[in-house]
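On clarity, I found the account of how folds are encoded harder to follow than it need be. Since the whole study asks how a given chain folds, the encoding of that fold should be made plain. For illustration, here is how one protein appears when written out as sequence plus structure tokens:
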Amino acid sequence: MDAESILHMLDVESAAEHRTDGWWVDVPDLDVRGLATLMRTREVRFVTLTGTPDTAGGYRLIYHWDADGALLNIATTVSAGCIASIADIWPAADWVERELRDYYALVFEGRAETPTLMLLEGDEPGLFSRTSAAGREIDPAVTARDAAEAERKES
């Protein structure tokens, strides 16, 4: 199914912007499970999910889909640190949900478990949240364990 038809079904085509790299739309309060189910039934392929902190203290999540060769990017905002999981509908979302949990301590509701992906077992989720508070000069890949230990000692 083509991207424009999907946007029409979501009733967001008027807010969507077509760019050289695909269709982009922001959907506040997105029902991600409803979206994932619609995409599954319409045979639109899940590509990935990206997440970044937003300026209001929440997170911006972008669900990327391949609709007959056109990239469809549907963004939403998470303010409370949790959002519904789509991994049971789209197993390919499993790793990226685990990655976002490790990096930002996001909770994906509905998962039976969320094992670590980038962190070691027993490490606290939220690697980027912790290290960004310590300053930009810290390399999270190298010093995450040291930053977490220093934070524990200060508490």
Notes: Confidence is low (pLDDT under 50) at residues 134-142.
